[in-house]
Amino acid sequence: MLDQPRQETTGEAPEEILHRVFGHPDFRGRQEEIVRHVMAGGSGLVLMPTGGGKSLCFQVPALCRPGLGIVVSPLIALMEDQVAALRQQGIAAAALHSDLPEEQAREVRRDLGRGAVKLLYVSPERLTLDGTLDFLSRRDLALFAIDEAHCVSQWGHHFRPEYRGLGLLAERFPSVPRLALTATADPRTVEDIRAQLRLSDSPVFRGGFDRPNIFISAAPRESERGQLRAFIKAASDGTGAGIVYCGSRARTEQTAEWLRADGHDALCFHAGMEPEAKREAHRRFARGDAVVMAATIAFGMGIDRPDVRWVAHLDLPRSPESWYQEIGRAGRDGLPARALLLYGAGDIALARHRIQESPAPDEQKRIERARLEAMVSIAEAATCRRRILLRCFGEDGPENCGACDVCRNPPRLFDGTVPAQKLLSAVLRTGRRFGVGHLVDVLRGRMTDKVAQFAHDRLPTFGVGKDFSDQAWRGVARQLVAMGALDVAIESHGELVPTDAARPILKGEQKVMLRAETVTAAAPRDRAGRGTPPAMAGDPLFDALRGWRKREAEAQGLPAYMIFSNETLASIATMRPQDAEDLAMIPGVGRSKLERYAEDVLRVVREAG
Ligand code: ADP
Ligand code: ZN
């Protein structure tokens, strides 16, 4: 705990806090409006994408308003990181959760008792204990912030039963503003959050959902490792982190292993790991240079690192919401970042079957199916991917975003009715019993053992597809699966099976437009400079500052970005401040950091000449 006596408000206006404490020149997007609303005592729900700047929406009013600010957070790692970052900024923040050693918990309670805490992070189960509520009811409270508010909803993917109890805050503390925040924009989840948290009469603040600095791309899985290697090479700047999302625990382990063999500092993370191992993985991810995490979607909340340069998915996510939340972890610092989605016909079919067979009520299945199909249409997009994605969040993006693979390199569409018919008829004539590999052999007229064994060389479809490459045929098959004309028999051997939707195609009643497959390992490296890593790497002063930051972070046991962000170091290297006054002008340098680090930073600048 900081050695500060009482944390009264300083009587500063929100803008002053923004400048002095956080070192930011301006509010972003709807932050200012939200801060004003809370300052005036209002409650509400904030919807902003990951990296959109939700934290300031409650941190600033919590510091301006009299009393203690309470932040409910679902994840211990997240709390600890935020508290450490706030203390770096000179704010008396503390966390109270079940993992805290009793001695430290006592210390926090003592500090609370003597009014030496301004911002308290607390887990929902702690907050709703009678003792905590009684204590808080005798205190002046600035606000309640409910972070990751989608945890309250069963419709979301991170339901936390303990969040349900938070509804009582409305009755217990009717005059204290309550601000719920989430990156989820799915309408059903949003309504559920409002109902559960008694916010139905309060406004919803929707930030723009676009994150234009993230270049998004998707490609059919061809050679997974080769594609991922090329992507990492294009996306990594040698310092920031990367995340590979995998569909299963085993895949996280295998992926981390081959990435390590490739020379990466790769870790893995999934829900089946011991709590201690998970914490360690979190810690190493937060602190490492150029670290790569291969993880299931269990790795998510609590990643505050602003310099995640890329996020790759090796398997199809189940909804645009989850995909966007996951790729949104890239580029929070506003610098160029990249996302790659790899997927195949098998993923699509598997996800459909899972929903089909799940014991969930029909209504929920219907919703999950709609989400999945939206995801498939993003993967198979022939027009701007970002536009399709943003439409899922009720937003109209530009016709051409210029920062997705489709805009950059538009696919060629062709009338694929005849190839579709050839493939479907090969499926029927071989008795609906074969996977795509064998069907491609038949179409291309390849005399394999299997073809000989089943005498498929005598079929009229044998060799009718010599004009297409193997890859092109797999593309036809995948697109037919995506459009629902073919199914993949997941429960047996992955054979392709026609559905009712195949009939009009076979009969020539329905035209099929297909995308010509191009080998896209990754988005091409950008010539225009957009999408390239920060240009400062290699600058001697920038490197010297990074060296100093690394030593400082290690000495304090903190992630480097909490000392200063790359962006701030890059500005320092460019501006070459001569004194503390110059340094204070640089974005990201608040007063507390100025007091702590001005001397060191100015020395590094001087020594670099
Ligand atoms: P979220 O919680 O919505 O995912 P954060 O609150 O972590 O996003 O903010 C994301 C990043 O944007 C952080 O690095 C933060 O410092 C930065 N940021 C937020 N608001 C501003 C602002 N007004 N000016 C400059 N940077 C900001
Ligand atoms: Zn686009």
- What sort of overall outline do the alpha carbons produce when their principal axes are compared? globular
Strand tally: 17
The domain count comes to 4
- The proportion of residues in beta strands is 5-15%
Low-pLDDT segments: 1-6, 519-534
What is the end-to-end distance? 38 Å
In what order do the strands lie side by side in the largest sheet?
A: 3-4-2-5-6-1-7
Rounded to an integer in angstroms, the radius of gyration calculated over CA atoms is 27 Å
The CATH topology of the largest domain is Rossmann fold
CATH superfamily of the largest domain: P-loop containing nucleotide triphosphate hydrolases
Small molecules (ligands, ions, cofactors) in the structure: adenosine-5'-diphosphate, zinc ion
Helical run tally = 27
Q: How much helix, percentage-wise, in residues?
A: 40-55%
Sketch the major β-sheet. Answer: 7 strands, parallel
Mean pLDDT: 89
CATH architecture of the largest domain: 3-Layer(aba) Sandwich
Could you say which structural class the secondary elements and strand pairing correspond to? alpha/beta
Give the CATH level 1 class of the largest domain.
Alpha Beta
Summary of the model, kept short:
This protein has 609 residues and is an alpha/beta fold.
Task: Explain what this protein looks like in three dimensions.
With 609 residues, this protein is α/β, with parallel strands linked by helices. The protein has four domains: 14-206, 3-Layer(aba) Sandwich (Rossmann fold), CATH 3.40.50.300; 214-408, Rossmann fold (3-Layer(aba) Sandwich); 413-515, Arc Repressor Mutant, subunit A, CATH 1.10.10.10; 534-608, DNA polymerase, domain 1. Helices cover 44% and strands 13% of the residues. It has 27 helices and 17 strands. The strands form four sheets. A seven-stranded parallel β-sheet has the order 3-4-2-5-6-1-7. A six-stranded parallel β-sheet has the order 8-13-12-9-11-10, sandwiched between helices. Helix 14 runs antiparallel to helix 15 (362-379), helix 14 (345-357) packs parallel to helix 21 and helix 23 (540-556) packs across helix 27. The protein is globular. Residues 1-6 and 519-534 have low confidence and may be disordered. The structure holds adenosine-5'-diphosphate and zinc ion. Zinc ion binds at residues 384-386, 400-401, 404, 406-407.
